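Reopening this one. Same input as before:
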Amino acid sequence: MSAQSDPPKQGGWRGFLRRLTSSQAELEAAELQEDTDRAGATPIASCGVRQRSCVAGTLRTVTLRPRGGAPALEAELYDGTDVIDLVWLGRRRIAGIEPGRMIRAEGLISVQDGRKVMFNPRYELRGVKGE
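Same output, byte for byte:
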């Protein structure tokens, strides 16, 4: 038997009680943060402005909103820490970009109206939440 004790496991009674007393929103946020780690992405809350970043999470909303007379597809991405708006200029629709879809996106982060925005990001469709 070794003199060192093993680190406590995340399961057990503590994990059960934490899951029991946490709200659904807190549980979903924690799950999204784990997915972000697995995707090799940076938490949105940690992303700096005017930095190239890779983010991952679930699309909450997808909206067609014209910008300067041209179509623009906007999607709100949530990763459990914060949200970022993904905007594809000149696009009305992109196959697979729909609410509930998990994606990984990469691009330059800017701020508009106090919100983080990534224009024309490279993206990878990851799956649908709940699958």
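So the earlier flakiness isn't reproducible anymore. For the record, The chain has a mean pLDDT of 82.
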